[in-house]
């Protein structure tokens, strides 16, 4: 009886295995189409939690920018990768991203009067006016992570403010003007993220070098 049962199981196993494989293939195809046709649970999760999405993006972006800056500046070749510095820089996004999220949420909720050009220029004005605050937040938070006092952190910002403002007002007003007027809505996030990576790379250099070394910016 045992031999007959084993033989019966052995003859039915390939058919069952084939059915199982077919079912797995069907599931894989459905899952693939669902993932790439817009019902992606990860994408859906981050679209419902924009604050978490913005914070995650900012942390990864600033950390990546600092790593690139260490390579570009030759720090990695001379002393190896300073991963603690990269972690401190990345953690700046934990403070700046929620603040930016709140600011743009308020800005987008405002009903600016006038035509499209007038509305864009008014948004650009408020965006530009906020630049010094956010660059100050970037530098001072980074200094506090290094163990500096609030007074010392603000002092560092004052020492480097001219270089920071040159970068800020050279990059962001024209970037946002192009963004609002010429970049299609579908590509604005990609465009701003690319510019932000370059900006954070420069800010990493300013933050981690003394004034005498950043005079060429």
Structural features, described:
By secondary structure, the chain is mostly helical. It has two domains: 39 residues; 164 residues, no CATH class. It is 82% helix and 0% strand. It is built from ten helices and no strands. α3 crosses α10 and α8 packs across α9. The longest helix has 35 residues. The protein is globular, with a radius of gyration of 26 Å.
The beta-strand count equals 0
Return the average pLDDT rounded to an integer.
80
Q: How many separate domains?
A: 2
Which class best fits the helix and strand makeup?
mainly alpha
**Number of helical elements:** 10
Order of helices and strands: HHHHHHHHHH
SSE topology:
Elements: H1 2-36, H2 41-48, H3 50-72, H4 75-79, H5 83-91, H6 93-109, H7 116-129, H8 131-145, H9 150-181, H10 188-207
Task: Write out key terms for the chains shown.
globular; 10 helices; mainly alpha; 217 residues; 2 domains; single chain; 0% strand
Give a brief outline of the structure.
By secondary structure, the chain is mainly alpha-helical. It has 2 domains: 1-39; 50-213, no CATH class. Helix content is 82%, strand content 0%.
